[in-house]
Sequence to fold (390 residues):
Amino acid sequence: METSRNFTQRFDWTLAMIIFIFMCISLTAISSAQTSGQYSANYVFLQLRGYIIGAFIVAFVMFFEPSQYKKFTWYLYGFGVFLLVMLFIIPTGSFAVEINGAKSWFKTPIGNIQPAEFMKTFYILGLAWLISKHHDTTPIKTVKTDLMLLVKMFGVLALPLFFIMQQPDLGSALVFFAITAALIIVAGVTWKIILPVFIAAAGIGASLLWMAIYKQDFIQNTLGFDPYQLARVYSWLDPYSYAASEGYHLITSLNAIGSGEIFGKGYGGREVYVAENHTDFIFAVIGEEWGFIGASFVICMYFLLVYHLTKIALEMKDSFCTYVCAGIIAMITFHVLENVGMTIQLLPITGIPLPLISYGGSSMMGISLALGLVFSMKFHHRSYMFGDDE
Fold:
């Protein structure tokens, strides 16, 4: 009886409405941002095109049941790794494109496509399959079995991470780490392992930060960090000392958001010039034009999105679906925290877009692929009421 419901009853209208609100926010912010004259292209039209393509991706992905994605997980994962490898092999300037020192895009008729955006979702599928299969085959949990699970998870992480760091794309690499950390916790790995691992990771991070400040020669010559990566750290900690170079973006972003005060200056009322304000720094446009109220509304919308995705994850009877939802939640949450955090100096600047708002064809298609999986799981949910589907 439950599986005989019609389309309107099975479709997730709440999630669709949340995405529609984000589309309105995105088009409004980009429309205002492009009046700064940085670029001649009509990014409102291009972003709308991205949403339309994204809708087709969601519809296509939703057509297949979660059990089919479970069966084809490793084919998708392998395809994603193949794309990353091709970026590494193909000479720059032909089919592969290098932007701002990172060779991360393919040139296509519909624009530049970044494989890492799709690999994030393929990676989530891989980890979800791995964790659910591990729990099925090892019903009795021990420290040893949890340690084996961690080794498997880091093995799945190693391959895409290696090629992403070769581009180099630190922002995407951090997203992969965030997804991994979240799924380690959700997978129920014992704190006897998690705590030492997380403390060690925090210690390594703190040590790298200390060396970046006080041991620049060692971290560059021995560990192989590029000067521009260190410059981002310095400009984050003290942007005004690098106001003419690396600190410029952060200073203009802080000035723009601060000048918006409580209610903002209204649509088109921007006075502070912010570079890349239609992509990575779109939040600065929102903060200046709509103030604290508008910025808070956007953040609340992300809370609503994550809350809704969490509800869906808790409803799933198939553990594979639950882990996929958890990975997508982690991916979106980290994107938001990093993007908003970098515009207000809480975190260093990385090339991470604001999901569903920043302009970007690859970002839109990547997030549509991920949300399409959620739509699929919700749409076909009743097929899994009585246990895991194989």
Summary: Confidence is low (pLDDT under 50) at residues 383-390. Residues 2-384 form one domain. The first strand starts at residue 96 and ends at 99.
